[in-house]
Amino acid sequence: MRLTGFFRLPKHEKFKYNPIYYNEEKVAQEQRIKRIKKELELEGEEGEKKAVSISNIKGQFHRGSRLNSSEKRKSNLRVFVILIILIVLFYLLLA
Predict the structure, then answer these.
(1) Is 4 within a domain?
(2) Spatial distance between the Cα atoms of 92 and 95, rounded to a whole number of angstroms
């Protein structure tokens, strides 16, 4: 009786990997070109649009910090409740 039929293992998969040549200079040049294009676009816009976008960014950070403070309060409350439960259990264990 053959037991190998029950425990037939699948063959390993073969992957075709073609390494790609990485040209660091070309990537750096593309990044510089993108950055310069963005700077030129910003210079073409009006100053008021820049001010509005900066205040919008500040507002987003402020809203994000409010959410973090409420999450911190909830976390602190959980820690406090767990601490109280552990103290009560420890007291009951010793009593």
Answers:
(1) no
(2) 5
pTM (2 d.p.): 0.33
Calpha distance 30→54 (Å, rounded): 27
On whether residue 50 sits in a domain, the answer given is yes
Q: Is-contact 62 69, C-beta < 8 A?
A: no
Residue range(s) defining the domain that contains residue 90: 24-94
Residue 17 lies in a domain: no
The per-residue pLDDT for 91 is 95
pLDDT tens-digit series, residues 18-58: 777 888 888 899 999 998 888 888 776 655 455 556 666 66
